[in-house]
Amino acid sequence: MPGHYGGQPAYIMDPRTEHKQGRDALSVNIAAAKAVANIVRTTLGPKGMDKMMVNSIGDIVLTNDGAMILKGMDIEHPTAKMIVEVARTQEEIAGDGTTSAVVTAGTLLDKASDLIEEGVHARVLVRGFENAAEKALEILNEFSIDVTEGNREALEKIASTSMSGKASETNKEILAALCVDAILQISKKGSVNVDNDIILRQEPGKSVSETEILDGIMLNKYRVHPGMPKTVKDAKIAIIDTPLETQKTSNTSKLQISNADEMQDFLAREEDDFKQMADHIIQSGANVVICSKNIGDKVAHYLQKSGVMGIRRVSDDDIKNLSYATGAKIVKRVFDLSEEDLGHAGEVGEEGESTVAKIFIKKCENTKVITILLRGSTEHVTDNLERAFDDALHVINSVFEDGKIVAGGGAAEVEIAQRLRHYASTIGGREQLAITAFADAVESIPMAIAENGGMDATSVILKLRNAHVENPNIGLDIYSGDYLDMVEKGIVDPLRVKTQTIRSASEVATMILRIDDMMRAQKKDMMDVNPEHNIHNYNRPF
């Protein structure tokens, strides 16, 4: 970046630094944001298309979940990373609507680009977008409908809408009911934390309709010793977070043995240590031992002789969940274990054969966590099912907390757009152009849903606008092609998903519009060509 002193250029910045200013910087940033939005736009709606993601070792992910797609991409451009951050924030706060937030942000910037070409200053656009977002949130609150925890039918409809296009459509109602059951079951214990209180486990090779809620935990483990009992009724469970075997010393050490008698004595003392370890566990009353580390063969032998089931190398997360489910305390030293530390379950059993077996801890009366066992024909099916359940559980929980829903099927977006256009007409100056552009961007969501369903988007939007003169809840039923009252049809969304979409999209758009100078420490050749086509690298693992 040269200045001039006495007719000679004075460099105050490394000339190798990539430096863009004014409209150049803005156009590059807008192109990157639009590119991210265009990648996920085709996945929007119940009839959205899927993306195949393949990493460097050939693992495949098939999904139309916007958050998963953006997470899997190796983003290079800094502005594109800001758009991906929008998706991450949307997922954390609302649990769904990631694709809508990204598409809305991309469309906002596209509309802004057109207005800037017409001579509207970026600052005017920022002010207009901020006013429009504030008005849109006000409209959404007026448009929303109150829902109570006892309205199970409404909760199931919310879960069903969230799962549309993500899970098995033929079993959508059954799966939605399971989501509601899970939330209601956990809510009886107090506040709900979906990420901590509900565990999702996959079991490929079965039908989706066999998906069920377990009143306990499933572990992808098997018994340490085949002679141990396969099923334990009225289980008293010890959770031990230390190896049940000979431990290495922290410092390098040597043992001098000069004759066979000393060797025999050493082995006898070691054997006695293992026996004491096992005897202490047995005397505590435990008939199931779950260890986060290894259970040595000799300890396993003594446990097996006393009819105790042993399970080893259980992950830290599962150990924590087992403690919540059974009430067992996690013990760090074996000889500190007492009867008061034991947890309880109606039944602990192994199902399946050999190394593909699974351990089920069932009938945990005071459990603070539950497990949803997701079943499907293949791993790809159960993977998609897990993502669908995760979204549905979070949106139900958001309705529990907020108690408000809005009509789906594009009804909310069209109503916001209609009212924003009316609001824009009351605003003087060029700011009204920004508010109208905001309305068009919001309306891009039902347009994308219609396009992905093979319909004429313009025709759909015009019909929805006309229908909203009479009824603000009219939306598009993408399956039948009819224009119906979405609340009566049961196609609804949590208010939080819509409000967070507006906030996220408007904030990132205004943030990007404020940038008029872009400096990079090193020039990236791939970004010099065309940022819209070079925001990611498909050769990197996702």
TrEMBL record:
Q: Recall the GO molecular function terms of this protein's record.
A: ATP binding; ATP hydrolysis activity; ATP-dependent protein folding chaperone; unfolded protein binding
Q: Which UniProt keywords apply?
A: ATP-binding, Chaperone, Nucleotide-binding
> A Pfam family for this UniProt protein?
Cpn60_TCP1
- Which Gene3D superfamilies does this entry report, sorted A to Z? GroEL, GroEL-like equatorial domain, TCP-1-like chaperonin intermediate domain
Q: So what family is this one in?
A: Belongs to the TCP-1 chaperonin family.
Name by which UniProt lists this protein: Thermosome subunit
Source organism per entry reads Methanohalophilus mahii (strain ATCC 35705 / DSM 5219 / SLP)
Q: What is the lineage of its organism?
A: Archaea, Methanobacteriati, Methanobacteriota, Stenosarchaea group, Methanomicrobia
